[in-house]
Each structure stands twice: as structure tokens, then as C-alpha cells.
Write a structure and sequence with these properties.
Layout (H helix, E strand, L loop, with lengths): L6 H17 L5 H8 L19 H7 L8 E6 L7 H17 L4 E6 L4 H13 L4 E4 L8 H9 L4 E4 L10 E5 L1 H18 L8 E7 L5 H20 L2 E8 L5 H15 L5 E4 L2 H13 L7 E2 L6 H9 L4 E4 L2 H17 L9 E4 L5 E7 L2 E4 L4 H5 L6 H5 L12
Parallel strand pairs: 1-2, 1-3, 3-4, 4-5, 5-12, 6-7, 6-8, 8-9
Antiparallel strand pairs: 10-13, 11-12
Amino acid sequence: MARQLNHEEVNTMRQLKRVVHRCLPVLGILVLAACTTNNSAPNNSSNNSTGTAPTETAQNTEFPAAKGCKNVGILLPESDSSARYEAYDRPLLEKEIKAALPGVTIQYANANNNATTQQNQAEAALTKGACILVVDPNDSDQASVIVQQAKASGVPVIAYDRLIQDPDTAFYVSFDNERVGELQGQYIAEQYRAGNFGLTKGANLAMINGAQTDNNALLFRKGALKALQPLVDSGDLNLVFDQYTPNWDNSRAQSLMEGVLTKQGNDVQIAYVANDGMANTVIAALRTQKLNGKVLVTGQDATPTGIQNILTGDQAMTIYKPIAQEAKATARLVAALSNGEDTSDIVNGETEIKGGGTIPSVLETPIVVDKSNVEETVIADGFLTREQICSGLPSGAGGVCP
């Protein structure tokens, strides 16, 4: 079984790869030495100079194991902080990949919030013949080890939902995650300007962000602050708390909120919460102080619990991300890699990684959901059924339940 690479070895491989890719077409030791002295410039060998998707030739050269591949590994990050991965992502990915690539064998594993476990799962999938990997990383940085292990075998890695910080990542499929945070922040700003939730100048804002090891969480916060920072700078809002939550842990989020309420003497008017799972436990903390429904709480993922909290008035909004579109785009890339086809009609952008490289990306559009448009969004799309949403809720809840 292949030995796992440590981070120093991964970094060394990256540097060697950059040198070789620059210097391979050039003959002569002197020219090769000249290339080596300039090997610090960022490079993404999965992308070409025009910013479009790799051509068939480049794909086949870069990832030779993918041509004709019918063994695909799907590695998801966790299941305890968000219900989406097992309830939606896994079945949708399996369904769409099987439809796009008939006869495919799928190896599936969930890391249960452990980056080392995910690395072991990737190694096991490769050992069992996986020739394309779809990886939703538990840790965006540590998952670089997975990319390099796969690369050594000519296997492409598609980063799914969360970005992997490695220039050898073949593709990234997700939503515009900075835009997700911006929509959350804009919603808060709009409610403040409208005077809803009793919000007035100087309202106290607590930010309970996702896991710092998840690049998406960094983008959510960045996007939210694009909308909120001007209000903080002007004194319209008072940012009293701003912290990441390790592993998106719901119970930790509740503890954080309890700490904020204690420190502020319950004087909190807005809780920016990155997703619905944490929002639900933040609401539990507010409920203990009889503040649920009085504090503006945000969320994300449009989970059944999140939508129920919106209908009961305990949560103001969530972000609906049509996961079916994300899964379908991933399946199209898997099929294109296997069939040796061009991907320019699938890719719609690029995503920067640390160090300045970019990954060819498919970025879907997030949607704000609050009490006013539950029926027109998650119910109309079949993402959630009315029965799911209304289970346990009183008749007439939110104007949605019969």
C-alpha cells in the first residue's frame, strides 16, 4: 500500500512539478537551470493560458488514468454538522454519475470530520482502482495530500463543494461561495435599513462562522463582511463577536452563542450564523433566554429544520443551494474525463487558490430563502416536500402548512 505523503514532501512535489512543466519542452541543461531559478511563479497545470478548460489532449496527458475510467471514488467530509451530505449529496452524485457514465462502479466513503481518515479513504479508493476521485475535503489544505497521491497515479481529483488548496486539482464544482456570504450579509443589511426585528443604530451583531479549515467558511465570512463592514464602520452595527467554529460543530456553536449572551447581558440583536445546523443550536441558546424570534438569525443549506425554523419565526433566512445542479455538473465532468472530451461547455469560471494559482470551476448560483418565498423555491424545485417541512408544525405555520 502506498505511503502517505507528508506536507513537506507534497510541497517538494509541487515545486518539482512546476519546474518540469516549464522546462520539459526546452532542451539543454543551461536553459533548464534558468527555468529552475524562476520556479516560484504560481502555476496550475490543469489550466491553459486562455483560462478555458483543458483540451482533450491536455486532459489525457495530465490524467492518463481517467481515459476510459469506470471506477469513481466519492469522498464526502462529514455527516454530523449538516444533514445535506448523506441526505442529498451522496444520492444525487451517485445517481447523476451513473446516468452520465453507464457501467460505472462507485466507491463511497464519508470522513466523519477527520482529515486523516479522508486521506486513508482516498488511498484505499486508489488501491481499489479508482481512476477519478470526487473529493469534498474535510480540510482544504490537508486534502492536497490526496491530490498529490492521485496525481502520482495519473488520477484527476474534482474538488466538490469545498475547494482543495492544490494547483493540481483538476476541477472545482461548487457555488459562488463568496456570493453566499454576501447574500447573507445583504439580508441583514436590508432588514436593518427597513427597521425590521426592531433593529436600530448600534444593534449588536455576533458572527458565528464555519470551520476555518474549510475554504468555503472563509469565503462566506468574506462575502458577509462585504455587506456588513460598512455598517460596522459607520456605527450602525456593533460587531461584538466574530469567531470560526471548529468542524462546523453544532454544539460548539451553541456554546459560543451562550458565551456571547452571557458577556453581552443578552444584548444581542443579530446572529450571523453560517449554516442551518449551527443556526438551530444558536436558536436553542436564544430560546433558553426567551430571545428566539426576537434576534435575527441567518443560515444556509435550506435544510428541513432550517426551513421549519423560518416558518416558526425563529430563523430569518437561509441560503438554498440547488445541490442537484452541483451533482449534475460533477457528473458531466466525470463523464468528459472518462470519454476524453473537451470540458469548455461545462466550466464557467476559475477559482483562485493560495499562492495565486487557479482551478477551472463550475460555480452554481445560490438563492436567498425566507418566509416570503419558501413555496417558490425549495418546494417548487422538489428539494423539500411540503410534508417534510410541515411535519410537527402547527396548521398554517408560515402560511405554508395546511
